[in-house]
Amino acid sequence: MAAYDLKGKKVYVAGHRGMVGSAIVRRLAAEACTVLTATRAELDLTRQEQVEAWMERNRPDAVFLAAAKVGGIFANDTYPADFLYENMVLEANIIHAAHKVDVEKLLFLGSSCIYPKFADQPIVEESLLTGELEPTNEWYAIAKIAGIKLCQAYRKQHGNDFISAMPTNLYGPGDNFDLKSSHVMPALIRKAHDAKMSGAESVTVWGTGTPRREFLHVDDCAEACVHLMKVYSDFSHVNVGSGSDVTILELTEMVCRAVGFAGKIVHDLSKPDGTPRKLMSGAKLQGLGWTPKIALEDGIAATYQAFVDGNFAERQHVSAA
Ligand code: GDP
Question: pTM value?
Answer without folding.
Answer: 0.94
